[in-house]
Amino acid sequence: RKEKSEECGGLVSEEGAAMLVARDYGLDIREITKSKVSDLVSGIKNIALTLRVFKISEEKKFERKDGKIGKLKIVYAGDETGYTRILFWDEQIENLNKIGINVGDVITIYNPRVKENIFGSFDLFITQNTKIEKDSENLPSVEDLLSNFLKKEYKRIELREIESGFVEAVGIVSKIYKLRTFEVCPICKAKIKENKCPIHGEVEKEVEYVLSFELDDFTSNVRVALFRDNVRKFLGIEKIEENIDLNKHLGKLIGVRGRAKINKIFNRFEIIADEIFEPNINDEIIELIENYGKEY
């Protein structure tokens, strides 16, 4: 984009230059929207995101159901509002290598396919209409992005003070929602329908679980989402069966560490749990008494 702006004698804005680049790639510039990571929702189309790459995974190989070998490489990139994963499959990895993307580079990606993963964040997939170019926009450093998004230092909070980021909170379970199941691809863990993965085709499905509850610490309450092993740990069982009595867990004192974010459907904070733990009851009671003693 910088080169395109210079081509025009500096007479166009950064956003305008991005649109001209999109036009050069054959994209409909009337529909391209410059977006941030925080704007992502499943299925959003015709967007351009400018991101800094702060981690690139090793290439992973796996065997598909038909016996063929597949490959996957993941690029982690973010801006000041959040981070996303860009997934490169098979021959797309060669294109990634040709572009020469390295940790620290700033890139603009046009027209990716956006899909929510099972943990409530969003992944970007490369399609035939996706274009990637290097950029020079001023974005947070690699160190800042790693610290903000991958180095999970959990901040102990009261729920009335909740904000986006990695948090730790302790409270009681005041409400439990229905246990839900969903089918995932055993290779990439993406949600699937009718045993078909959008990436790997027909696969042997795996069934996973999600359970949400309201955590209340007497200052406020927030919805917590548990996935997979955390569901089993919360329920205290290894094998999940039908007709489980969820209500017996109401009133349980529980600690949660995870990522707090805004649920765009309900426009309120929720915590996607990385782990749950059993707090020391005596310590928590003393802390509650001390906190309420100061206020009342």
Describe this structure in words.
By secondary structure, this protein is an alpha+beta fold. The strands form three sheets. Strands 1, 2, 3, 4, 5, 6, 7, 8 and 9 form a nine-stranded mixed β-sheet that branches. Strand 13 and strand 14 form a beta hairpin. The longest helix has 15 residues. The protein is globular. About 2% of the residues have low confidence.
How are the elements arranged and paired?
Elements: H1 2-7, H2 14-24, E1 33-35, E2 47-56, E3 60-63, E4 69-79, E5 82-89, H3 92-99, E6 106-110, E7 113-116, E8 122-125, E9 131-135, H4 142-150, E10 155-156, E11 165-176, E12 180-184, E13 196-197, E14 201-202, E15 206-216, E16 221-227, H5 229-235, E17 253-263, E18 268-277, H6 281-295
Parallel strand pairs: 1-2, 5-8, 10-11, 16-18
Antiparallel strand pairs: 2-4, 2-6, 3-4, 4-5, 6-9, 7-8, 11-15, 11-17, 12-15, 13-14, 15-16, 17-18
Short structural description:
The chain is 19% helix and 39% strand. The chain has six helices and 18 strands.
